[in-house]
Design goal:
Chain lengths: ~290, ~270
C-alpha cells in the first residue's frame, strides 16, 4: 500500500525524483571513489611497511667480503633482526621479473649497472637511524634508503587525499540532504490539502509520513546503488592499467567480496541518510 | 436525565472564539442520544460547521466540555485523535474527496487507516459503492462525476467502516430535491440500522420529512431544540415527485392547447 503511494508520488514528479537520485548517485560515487582510494593506499602503505626497513646500496668497487664486514658490523650492534644480501645478479633477476613485459628495458640493463645491497630489518624502528649512521660514513656505501621515509611520505600524501575526500564527501552529503529535504518539502506542500483531508478522516501521523520517509529511502538506495555500482565498475575496468602503473606493488586483485561489502555498507548508509533527510522534511513541513 | 451509556454526544457550556474575541459559539449545551436522527439547522455562519469540527477535534473549544460516546474530547491526547475520527463518519460540506484518487480509492481510505488489508478494504468499499448506486463509477475520478454522484462518494466513504455516528454537514447542499431525498433516504436507512445521525441542513423540505429532533442555532447560540415532525422521507419524496409529474403534465396540456388555438386561428382566417 505504502509502496504504491511512493510509486505514485515519484511518477507524478519525475524530474524532482531524478534530481534527488542524481545528487545521491554523485555523492555515493564520490564516497566509493574515496573509499577505493583509501583501500588502495592502505595496501600500498602496508606493502612498503612490509618491505625491509633499511636498504643499503653499495658502490661497484665493494667486494662481497667488504659487504660481509659491514653486515657483521651491523649485526654486532644487536639491533638488527634480519639481514638479506642481494647481489648484482640477484638484483638483475628481480629487475627482470618486474619488467618481464618490457623487452626494451630488459635489453638496456645488465648486472653490472645494478648495485649490490643488503636489506635490513631492525628489532625496533628507533634503531634504524643508529644503523644507518654506522654505514653512512663508509666509503663503500652508495646510498642508504629508509623505507620509513617512503612510508611517511605516502602516509602524508594519502592523509591529504583523505582530508580532501572527507571535505568533498561532507559537502556532497550536506547538499544531498538539503536537496532531499527540499524535494520532500515541496511534495508535502503540494499535497497539503490531501494530507489535511486524510487527517480529518482518521489517518494517523505514521500513515501520512510513511510514504515520504520511504521516498527518502528510495532516493538513498537508488543513489548508492547507481553511484557505488558505477565507481566499482569503473575501478574494475581500469584495474589492468592501474596494476601496470603500480607494478611490483601487491595491491591487486581486490576481492569482489570487499566490493560487495563496500556497496552494501554504502546502501545502508544511503538509506539511513535518505530516511534522515525525509524525516527532517516531514518534521519541518508536517507539524 | 439520560443514562450516560445512552448518550452519543454531549456539549456542556461550549464556547468557541477565534482570535480571542470573535465568538462563533456561545455557551451551548445539548445532548444527542445514541441511535437518534438529529437535524442541526441554522443560517450560514451560525456555527453548524464549527460544532462538527469540535466533535472531530479539528477545533478545540475555548470553554466547556464535549463528550463523544464517553470520550472526553477535552482531555483526549493528540495521539488518540485519529482513533476518534475513525469512529465518526463525516460527510463534509465541501465533500473533501481526493481528486487524484478514483471513487474506490477514496472510499477505501478510512479502512486502510484502520489497518484493513487492501483486498478486504476493496471488497468492502465496492459493496458500499454499489449500495449508494455508483457501481458503474468505481474507477472514475471525482472530477468525472456529477454533484450528486460526488455526494454519494462522500457518503460511501463516511459509511464504509460502519461508524456508530455520522456527521453530515449540508450533505444535500447544491443538489436537486430528488437527489437530496435519495441522500436523506440513505442516511435514514443507516440510522435504522442503529447509527446516530447528526445532520446539518437548511433545507426545510428535508427537515419536514422526518427525524427525531431539530436543534436550531443562530449566531452561535441554540435558539430552539424541539422534536421533529414525524413523516417519512419517502412519502415526502413521492409527494414531491408526484407534484413534479403533475406540473409536467400541465405544461404539456398547456402547449397542446396553445397549438390547438393557433391552428384554429389559422383555419378561421
Amino acid at each position: 500500500m505504502y509502496l504504491n503511494t511512493v510509486a505514485k508520488y515519484i511518477r507524478r514528479s519525475p524530474y524532482q525524483a531524478f534530481s534527488a537520485a542524481l545528487i545521491m548517485s554523485l555523492t555515493f560515487f564520490s564516497i566509493s571513489v574515496f573509499a577505493l582510494l583509501t583501500i588502495i593506499s592502505v595496501r600500498f602503505i602496508s606493502y612498503f611497511e612490509s618491505r625491509p626497513q633499511l636498504t643499503i646500496f653499495f658502490k661497484d668497487n665493494a667486494s662481497r667480503e667488504d659487504i660481509g664486514q659491514v653486515q657483521k658490523q651491523l649485526e654486532d650492534t644487536g639491533k638488527t633482526s634480519l639481514m638479506v644480501y642481494v647481489s648484482k645478479e640477484e638484483a638483475l633477476k628481480i629487475y627482470k621479473e618486474q619488467n618481464k613485459n618490457d623487452p626494451i628495458l630488459l635489453d638496456l640493463v645488465t648486472a653490472d649497472i645494478l648495485p649490490a645491497s643488503i636489506e635490513v630489518q631492525a628489532k625496533e624502528a628507533r634503531y634504524l637511524s643508529d644503523l644507518a649512521g654506522i654505514v653512512k660514513g663508509s666509503e663503500l656505501v652508495e646510498e642508504v634508503i629508509f623505507q620509513k621515509d617512503i612510508v611517511d611520505t605516502l602516509i602524508s600524501w594519502t592523509n591529504a587525499v583523505r582530508y580532501v575526500g572527507l571535505a568533498v564527501i561532507a559537502i556532497l552529503v550536506t547538499v544531498s540532504v538539503m536537496v532531499i529535504i527540499t524535494i520532500i518539502g515541496i511534495k508535502i506542500t503540494v499535497r497539503r490539502e490531501e494530507i489535511e483531508i486524510m487527517k480529518l478522516i482518521g489517518a494517523s501521523n505514521w500513515f501520512i509520513r510513511a510514504p515520504f520517509l520511504l521516498e527518502g529511502i528510495f532516493y538513498g538506495f537508488t543513489g548508492a546503488f547507481i553511484g557505488g555500482g558505477l565507481a566499482i565498475g569503473l575501478f574494475y575496468y581500469f584495474s589492468p592499467s592501474l596494476e601496470a602503473f603500480l607494478r611490483g606493488v601487491a595491491i591487486f586483485p581486490l576481492s569482489p567480496v570487499i566490493m560487495l561489502e563496500l556497496l552494501l555498507v554504502e546502501v545502508i548508509i544511503a538509506c539511513i541518510l535518505g530516511t534522515f533527510a525525509s524525516y527532517l522534511a516531514v518534521l519541518r513541513y508536517l507539524k | 436525565m439520560l443514562h450516560v451509556n445512552l448518550v452519543m454526544i454531549e456539549f456542556k457550556n461550549v464556547s468557541k472564539k477565534f482570535g480571542g474575541t470573535n465568538s462563533v459559539l456561545d455557551n451551548i449545551s445539548f445532548l444527542i442520544e445514541k441511535g437518534s436522527f438529529v437535524y442541526l439547522v441554522g443560517p450560514t455562519g451560525s456555527g453548524k460547521t464549527t460544532i462538527f469540527r469540535l466533535i472531530i477535534r479539528d477545533l478545540f473549544p475555548t470553554e466547556g466540555s464535549i463528550t463523544l460516546d464517553q470520550w472526553d474530547l477535552f482531555t483526549l491526547p493528540k495521539s488518540k485523535i485519529p482513533h476518534l475520527r475513525r469512529k465518526v463518519g463525516v460527510v463534509f460540506q465541501d465533500l473533501k474527496l481526493l481528486l487524484d484518487r478514483t471513487v474506490i480509492e477514496n472510499v477505501m481510505l478510512p479502512l486502510q487507516f484502520s489497518g484493513v488489508k487492501d483486498e478486504e478494504a476493496r471488497r468492502r468499499a465496492e459493496e458500499i459503492i454499489i449500495d449508494v448506486g455508483l457501481a458503474e463509477k468505481l474507477n472514475k475520478f471525482p472530477l468525472q462525476l456529477s454533484g450528486g454522484e460526488k455526494q454519494r462518494v462522500a457518503m460511501a466513504r463516511a459509511l464504509v467502516f460502519n461508524p456508530e455516528i455520522i456527521l453530515a454537514d449540508e450533505p444535500t447542499g447544491n443538489l436537486d430535491i430528488q437527489t437530496s431525498f435519495q441522500i436523506l433516504d440513505l442516511l435514514k436507512s443507516i440510522n435504522k440500522r442503529g447509527a446516530t445521525v447528526f445532520m446539518a441542513t437548511h433545507n426545510e423540505k428535508l427537515i419536514d420529512s422526518g427525524g427525531d429532533r431539530i436543534i436550531i442555532v443562530e449566531r452561535g447560540r441554540i435558539v430552539e431544540d424541539k422534536k421533529a415532525r414525524q413523516k417519512s422521507a419517502r412519502a415526502d419524496h413521492e409527494t414531491g415527485k408526484k407534484a413534479k409529474d403533475e406540473k409536467e403534465e400541465l405544461k404539456k396540456d398547456k402547449i397542446k392547447l396553445e397549438s390547438l388555438v393557433e391552428e384554429k386561428g389559422k383555419n378561421v382566417s
